[in-house]
Structures are given as structure tokens and as C-alpha cells.
Design a protein that fits this description.
This protein is mainly α. Helix content is 70%, strand content 0%. The protein has one domain.
């Protein structure tokens, strides 16, 4: 028995691939088809680069329009470690903090985003492959994760606009876009409650849904859309509980 020729060998037309820029809009308006394309030919760099660049721009604009001194003063005032610090020492701490805060912000932005993408990619790939019996490769998982962060691009653009239209003294860089429950809690709320509130984030929930659809598209025989979303929700909930518990224990 002869082996039938492949579609390429037989000259059959191949399905057109979706370009990287088209994938950014595709995950928002046609996620299933877009993630099927990502699974077939993974890519990941474009959304990651855009998020890093936009984050750097937000940090730069914040430094120019608002400045870091106010944020540092707020942090020092809220910290139990510096509550009893003499006024002259607090002033020195503010000066040092205002000097190093932008450096830390730039470095953490450039480093933290790619590292977070790699960690989330590895964890979710492991969970889906071990728990759900999927066979998702690392590159497929990385493509799903990074393109699922497209809502973060929208959030960064909104935040950048707010930096220009809002009065500088009303801007909180830690909660630039009021997209979470923490934005509506009082400033004197316990840190663990504020951490939990900021985790209940509209853009995060949107991302979770996209990730679930993405992993379902990569392994449709093993993972339904509902199952995919449920697995991501459980992973997110466990991480959130650990983070809230850590803050509650050491704040």
C-alpha cells in the first residue's frame, strides 16, 4: 500500500497563516481560530516586546509628569519599619528612594516581564500536560501565554493616556487604571486585603479566559474551553492565595 501524498507534495493549497500583528487583534475577536494558528506555528516575541516597551514608556512619562518623590514618601509613611524614624532620617530616605526608584522601575520592567512570561509558560505547560494529558510544547505554551497578555497592552495604552489627562497629584502609578477591586478600597486597608483586591482585576480575568481558550485550541481532544479556563483559574487562585498569605504574614 502506498502512502498518500501530503498536501504540500500534492500541491493542495495550504491554509493562510495569520501574521503576528493580526494575531494581536485575532485573540480578541476570533480567539479560537487565532490560537489554532499559534499552536500550528508558534510565535511569541511581538506581544512581549510591545508590553515591555509600553511599560518603559509609562515609567518614563510618570517620572516626567508626576515624579517619584511622592510615591517614595507614601511608601515610607505606610511602612511599619519607618514609622518611628526621625524626621531627618525620613528625609534622607526619601532622597535616596527618589533617586533609585526610577532605576529599579526600569530594570524590573525590562527583566520582570520576560521572566514572568517564562515562568507562567513553564507552569501552565506542566499543569496541562500532566493533569489534562495534553501534549503542548514549550513554544506553543509561550505563544499562548504572551498573546493572552494582549489585554495588558490595552491596559498600558489606557494608563498612558491617563498619565496625560489626569492631574499629576491624582495619579497612583501602582493603580494607574481602576481595573480592580483594590482601586476602590480605602488607603488604610490591610495590605493583605489590598493585595487581594488588586488581584481581582478585569484585565487579569480577560487574560485567564484567553489562556483557557488558547490551551484548548492547542489540544482540543484533551481540553475543552471550559476545562482550559477552569485549570487556569485554579492556578491563578492558588498563586493569589499564596501571595495574599505571604503579605498577610510579613506585613
Amino acid at each position: 500500500m502506498t502512502t498518500p501524498p501530503s498536501a504540500i507534495e500534492s500541491g493542495a493549497p495550504q491554509p493562510a497563516r495569520i501574521g503576528d500583528f493580526a494575531r494581536l487583534t485575532g485573540v480578541l475577536f476570533s480567539p479560537k481560530a487565532t490560537y489554532e494558528d499559534i499552536a500550528a506555528k508558534p510565535s511569541w516575541a511581538l506581544p512581549l516586546v510591545i508590553i515591555v516597551v509600553l511599560s518603559v514608556v509609562v515609567v518614563a512619562v510618570f517620572g516626567q509628569r508626576v515624579g517619584w518623590r511622592g510615591l517614595v514618601e507614601k511608601k515610607i509613611a505606610e511602612s511599619s519599619r519607618t514609622a518611628d524614624m526621625p524626621a531627618d532620617q525620613k528625609a534622607e530616605a526619601v532622597e535616596r528612594g527618589a533617586k533609585f526608584a526610577p532605576i529599579v522601575a526600569y530594570v524590573s520592567t525590562v527583566v520582570a516581564v520576560p521572566v514572568a512570561a517564562l515562568l507562567v509558560t513553564a507552569v501552565l505547560m506542566g499543569v496541562f500536560n500532566l493533569v489534562a494529558g495534553a501534549r503542548v510544547s514549550f513554544l506553543q505554551s509561550l505563544g499562548i501565554v504572551t498573546y493572552s497578555w494582549t489585554p495588558a497592552i490595552i491596559g498600558a495604552v489606557i494608563g498612558l493616556i491617563l498619565l496625560f489627562v489626569k492631574a499629576p497629584d491624582t495619579i497612583n502609578i501602582e493603580n494607574l487604571v481602576a481595573d480592580n477591586v483594590g482601586a476602590f478600597l480605602s488607603g488604610d486597608s490591610p495590605r493583605w486585603l489590598m493585595t487581594l483586591g488588586t488581584s481581582l482585576n478585569l484585565f487579569v480575568f480577560w487574560t485567564i479566559a484567553l489562556m483557557g481558550i488558547g490551551y484548548s485550541a492547542a489540544s482540543p481532544k484533551k481540553i475543552s474551553i471550559g476545562k482550559g479556563i477552569a485549570i487556569v483559574v485554579i492556578c491563578w487562585a492558588l498563586f493569589t492565595l499564596a501571595k495574599v498569605g505571604w503579605v498577610g504574614a510579613f506585613s
